[in-house]
Design a protein that fits this description.
By secondary structure, this protein is α+β, with helices and mostly antiparallel strands. It has a five-stranded antiparallel β-sheet, covered by helices on one side. The two termini are 29 Å apart.
Length: 175
């Protein structure tokens, strides 16, 4: 029983640790992307032509742009630019707090809100869209619970049978 409790507690700690490490990895990717965008000529633009902004983002990030979204808002929250894939989610990314996490069904959206340094009235939102199962056990159901319960039970029954068989000669000597 102690072995099962120890295994369960170590598993829970490892799940929490890896979930936290995955989130740190995603945050690092977002920070790196946001830094590249802020350091680009995108901060200098006064008007946001979709084609020009897409060209700048593609030039700065290359293939690292895949799976990320970019939104530029003014002070009132109106969208000046947004990547084409974000409107498909039908989710409004809030301007506050600095780090935003939104979980909707099977997707997880993690974003950062940053003021553009050369234009304090504009906010850059950079984020990642990923599956929530990357962070949370969304597929854990009764069948998975029974499977996880059956493995230690079978292991304990096998141990009991083997110990009874292997220690039988010692029992006979003791008698």
């Amino acid at each position: 029983m102690i072995l099962v409790l120890t295994t369960a507690s170590v598993t829970a700690v490892m799940i929490y640790y890896f979930q936290d490490e995955r989130m740190d990895f995603i945050d690092g990717e977002i920070r790196q992307t946001a830094t590249a965008i802020i350091d680009s000529e995108l901060s200098d633009l006064r008007a946001y032509d979709y084609e020009k902004v897409n060209d700048i983002i593609s030039e700065e990030l290359g293939p690292d742009r895949i799976g990320k979204f970019f939104i530029i808002r003014n002070q009132t929250g109106d969208v000046l630019f947004q990547t084409q894939n974000i409107h498909l989610l039908e989710v409004e990314i809030p301007k506050e707090p600095q780090w935003v996490t939104i979980r909707t069904g099977k997707t997880l959206i993690r974003a950062v809100n940053l003021a553009l340094p050369r234009s304090k009235t504009r906010t850059l939102q950079v984020g990642v869209i990923t599956e929530s199962s990357f962070f949370y056990w969304s597929n854990f159901d009764i069948q998975a619970a029974l499977f996880l319960l059956a493995i230690p039970t079978l292991f304990l029954i096998g141990t009991w049978i083997l110990s009874a068989y292997l220690f039988a000669p010692l029992r006979h000597v003791g008698e």
